[in-house]
Amino acid sequence: MTYKTDEIWEDKWVNTTCGVCYCGCGAKVRVVNGVPVKIEGIKETTMGGTNAGLCGKGVAGLMYYHDPNRIKKPMLRTNPEKGIGVDPKWKEIEWEEAYEIITTKMKKIMEDDPNKILFTNQTMRASDGPHNHPYFYAQAFGVKNNGNFIIGGGSLHCGNACHMLGGLIHGAWSIAPDWRYTKYVLKWGSSKGTGSGHSAMTNARLRADAVRRGIKEIVFDPMGNFAGGKATEWLAILPGTDTAVGLAIANYIVNMRGEMDELYLKAKTNFVYLIKEDGTYIRHEKSNKPLVYDTKAGEIKEYDDQSAAWEDLALDGEYEYNGEKVRPCFVPFKEHLKQFTIEWASEISTVPAAKILEVAKGWVDNAQIGSTITIEGKTFPYRPVSSVTFRGSQGHTNGIHQVAAIDLMAQLVGAEDVPGGTLGWPAIRRAYPGGNYEQTCKVGTDGVIVPSVFYSHDPWPVHAPSYPATNMGCVDVWTHCTLSHIPYVEEVDYIHDKLGMKAKPEMIFGISANFIISNSDWDTAVKNFKDCFVVQNDLWINETDQAIGDLILPDVSYLEKDCWSSEIDAFFFSGSPSYEDWYVHLQKPVAKPIGESRFFMDVYLEVAHRVGVLDKFNAKLNDYYRIEDPELQIKPGEKLTWKEIGERVLRWVYGPDKEKIEEQGYATWHKSIEDVYWRWEIDSRCPVYMEYLIHDRRNMEKIFEETGFDYKKLEMDMDQYTPLPSWFWPESHKDLDDEYDLLAFSYRDILHTNNTTFQNPYVDEVSQMCPYTFTITLNTTMAKERGFKDGDIICIENKYGVKEKGIVKTMEAQSPKVIGIAGQGGLWADGRPIAKGKGANFCKLLPAKLKYFDPVAGNMETAVAVKIYKVN
Ligand SMILES: Nc1nc2c(c(=O)[nH]1)N[C@H]1C(S)=C(S)[C@@H](COP(=O)(O)OP(=O)(O)OC[C@H]3O[C@@H](n4cnc5c(=O)[nH]c(N)nc54)[C@H](O)[C@@H]3O)O[C@H]1N2
Ligand SMILES: Nc1nc2c(c(=O)[nH]1)N[C@H]1C(S)=C(S)[C@@H](COP(=O)(O)OP(=O)(O)OC[C@H]3O[C@@H](n4cnc5c(=O)[nH]c(N)nc54)[C@H](O)[C@@H]3O)O[C@H]1N2
Ligand code: SF4
Ligand SMILES: [Mo]
């Protein structure tokens, strides 16, 4: 559209936060006459790419505002029948009626048991929205929070194992290489710095500088795509077999090369803790603290006894305590590693043995054990090697061992949260100068770091398994799940029945996730959730809404949202992991809400008010921000809008600079170097030997025996509850045979954010030019041998007869034993016509049985054994 100059009454740029994915890059929007017309990055911020670089999706975000398919009023289902392919017969209703329906239902359920309400949340609203608030919200209703959450594939595909160990090792949500100082990076199923993952553009900028500096980056991935294609070296690996390679590298370091950072192992890990024959710690009779052996004094002492110097603690030997034989847990650990030879790992993973050896050598050579670096006058141990992972490798039934093995090599050389090594997202955020809100790590039981923010989870120690289960996710029993897998599994009724879960879910309420299609087998998801009254806040009618939604409330998009609360969560989720200043962006409305859309946080507040739990929610907010000033605290009986609450919180957090920060749209202050490289600043220990799992196993097996829950029949592998990172075949591999002889897997398309951007016309146009977004990739040679060529339409079928069709695209850089399906295509919602009918859907092929989920962390098997054949 062109304007005559005299018709322009407004032409301005507004600083805000990009909301197209959870990375929360600083963004500015040009607004002409109230209409957003262009999006760019903000040059000075550390939240974003080089020279104000946003990614392609970010600049295309404009279409969130301009999409005519957005819902504009609450939509009520009038057809009581539910399911895929059923017309919901939507009827537009007024907000007042919508609130009446919601609160009447909720009040009735609450009289009985609030745990009958499930809450949804969405990973993508994490940094442009109040990530943690939905959890407090649920708590205000009296719900055991992480047991009653469903958020699409979020966490089950992408985080459970990583967040669990990220929390316990780094006090953080996620990990990244220290791009600034590293020399040697190993990536295991993660595109950090090349397109996806946390802080995507920030990492891309930091990585680009590192590449210019000449780092070596080795990517283990079934496909040489975004990460592999840009790496120094791409090594094809079969999905779910990273553990084997990781353990072989650990064995090389410990038993072949014998070069370790011994001081680190003695000072910063639990390897020195003495264990009994059964593998559990011996503990001090009074303090209950684990014990260590001081070689200099020849005495057994509490692990934190200041009279024992770190270097004198024993990593080997055998001792006696109260007549019992005890030894440092490093002794069996070292012995255990011996079985994992490089040849063995090569056979399992298909990575050539010579390559594994080369990487293992490169790792130790580059680790520079014993070296130090002085930055700004402060000296730190220098370990310029990083080993990182995220969704790719952890999304398997052996997920917890995958992540533990990938972490182990860094532990052995002391490369954790020191310059050059693997960093957690800054675990520590100091208060803004003159402001008040601060998050730091504390040291808890057994010397383990207690993460400041650990999702909805108990931080540490995690509660002991107990029954009866009180929530749909049964997190009473499966205690390590960031989010629970149980709501999705086929055997859910049996599990609830046996474990005594009485609160059969009756209602689902929250921010839209596409949980019917973005996790696993669609039919099981429909079966498990369709009897609930489903209320989602959404921009469109998505697949889940269409299949089982009852009432869909129109949300504002990030362009119309006044979301001050993007500020707090930004630090642990999407800030820069590196040593560079804090930039924390607010999300400011650049346009008026479309139709009658309302920000979901205000809807939350209204519903809480009407149901009578608003005071409880407000109290949680006071608590979360630790607001001490009585003037700023939300008081009982006060009913504020989200913006009004923001006025108080921002004053608390930024003090006198609040107005200035609101005006410029972001706050910036110095991040101190000790808060980035905190490992030697805080006296804590990594629980590398996962002793707690022994106790969990005992407790769980006792529960299973008492309740008659037949976990063996459900093929839940309790052997994974072992303190030693070990090899377990992923369930997908066990399904391989002569007929189902390929492993299908999925990867993020750099052009897309999950399934949301399939509805973005700009992104769609680019996708049509991309040979991969809407296709299924096969290795070129393999395709030729099997008679497939580009453009062929094939059917992919799993062992349970579930099928998906797609178009073949061959590529050299892919393992010949796998097939790759990009992102989350194969969508069909009528409410998203741009997305409809493009690409193939991978998730429906993932079986939703308990055995396909990691028995410890609950993440799911995201590879599946399939056969493929041509169709017309
Ligand atoms: N095949 C395959 N499946 C995957 C993955 C994969 O790589 N491949 N990845 C997995 C991972 S890691 C994740 S986190 C999940 C994500 O899966 P989902 O959470 O289901 O996907 P999203 O696209 O993030 O968002 C879900 C829905 O939110 C709605 N939405 C979008 N923007 C807004 C908004 O501003 N406000 C509101 N109220 N609603 C909005 C849209 O209707 C969208 O359908 O998928 C998992 N599933
Ligand atoms: N562009 C973009 N960025 C995003 C998102 C998005 O949708 N688009 N989503 C956000 C979300 S919700 C998440 S969870 C993160 C995820 O970010 P990442 O963790 O980077 O996730 P993916 O790109 O799905 O997977 C990474 C790589 O793992 C490979 N892979 C699959 N299985 C295995 C395996 O078993 N072992 C190994 N070694 N590799 C494997 C895939 O081929 C892929 O290249 O990204 C976030 N950022
Ligand atoms: S990485 Fe995410 S937050 Fe940053 S510009 Fe791209 S879509 Fe926006
Ligand atoms: Mo995710």
Q: Can you walk me through this structure?
A:
Its EC number is 1.17.5.1. Keywords: 4Fe-4S, Iron, Iron-sulfur, Metal-binding, Molybdenum, Oxidoreductase, Signal. Pfam families: Molybdopterin. This is Phenylacetyl-CoA:acceptor oxidoreductase PadB subunit. Residues 11-69 form the 4Fe-4S Mo/W bis-MGD-type domain. With 872 residues, the chain is of the alpha/beta class. Among the domains are: 75-161 and 462-557, Rossmann fold; 272-328, no CATH class; 731-870, Barwin-like endoglucanases (Beta Barrel). It contains 26 helices and 33 strands. The strands form ten sheets. A seven-stranded mixed β-sheet has the order 5-4-25-24-23-6-7, with helices on one face. Strands 28-32-29-31-30-33 form a six-stranded mixed barrel. The chain has a four-stranded parallel β-sheet with strand order 11-10-9-19. The chain is globular, with a radius of gyration of 26 Å. The model has no long low-confidence stretch (mean pLDDT 95). Bound molecules: ligand MGD (2 copies), iron/sulfur cluster and molybdenum atom.
How would the blueprint of this fold be written?
Layout: E1 11-17, E2 26-32, E3 35-41, H1 56-60, H2 63-66, E4 75-77, E5 90-92, H3 95-112, E6 117-120, H4 133-140, E7 149-150, H5 160-170, E8 175-177, E9 184-188, H6 200-213, E10 216-221, E11 233-236, H7 242-257, H8 262-268, E12 274-275, E13 291-294, E14 299-302, E15 319-321, E16 324-328, H9 330-337, H10 342-349, H11 353-367, E17 372-375, E18 378-381, E19 385-389, H12 391-394, H13 399-413, E20 422-424, E21 442-443, E22 449-450, H14 492-499, E23 507-511, H15 522-529, E24 533-538, H16 543-548, E25 551-554, H17 566-573, E26 582-585, H18 600-611, H19 614-624, H20 642-654, H21 658-664, E27 666-669, H22 673-676, H23 692-707, H24 731-734, E28 742-747, H25 761-769, E29 775-779, H26 780-786, E30 793-798, E31 803-811, E32 818-822, E33 863-870
Parallel strand pairs: 6-7, 6-23, 9-10, 9-19, 10-11, 23-24, 24-25, 28-32, 29-31
Antiparallel strand pairs: 1-2, 2-3, 4-5, 4-25, 8-20, 12-16, 13-14, 15-16, 17-18, 21-22, 26-27, 28-33, 29-32, 30-31, 30-33
Helix pairs in contact: 3-18, 4-19, 5-13, 7-10, 7-11, 7-13, 10-11
